[in-house]
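subagent[fold] <- orchestrator: predict structure for attached chain, return tokens only, no commentary.
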Amino acid sequence: MLNIYRNLLKVVTEAPQGRFYSSTPYKSAISLENLYPNSSLKLTTPSKPPNDDKFTGYIPMDQLDITYSRSSGPGGQNVNKVNTKVEVRFQLNSATWISEDVKSKLLEKFKNKITKDGFVIFRSDLTRHQQLNLADCLEKIRASVRACLVEDTEPSEETAEKIRRRNEKAVRERLALKRMRSQVKNDRRGPEMDL
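subagent[fold] -> orchestrator:
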């Protein structure tokens, strides 16, 4: 407590004539600048990893178009004041951080979601925090690229036969349930009278 009064007295005595306030804004002891003094709180892109042939999860921020807007849903006045919804878009053809075969798979996968200009759009309003929604969008991009990297394996003949039998059994059971339900409804009807 004594330190606070000393600091306040120091600010008042060192202030120019007629000014009794500090030129720097108040910083709490638990502010981010005090907790992490050497960190930059700005959004930066890390340097690209040396492995060029495989996707490592690196997404250059300068090739993305990031826009923020107001989120929908519950949240009270916070929804009306803060731009927390994030929309990340990038042009698929000019993305240098994706290999050509992955681009073709993404083009096939998102053929209904690609705009006329060739942009792929990812949106997130999962949380009330802008940075967490941005991280969610970036993770959606990474997940879609990694899904395209996975090679589809053909099932063995034995597995394919098991799947076929399961499907046939499911169809038979569905039709049996349908017949039973139809019979129940027919039993509810009264006898038909000819007039």
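orchestrator: received. Logging for downstream: The chain has a mean pLDDT of 81. DSSP finds six helices and three strands in the chain.
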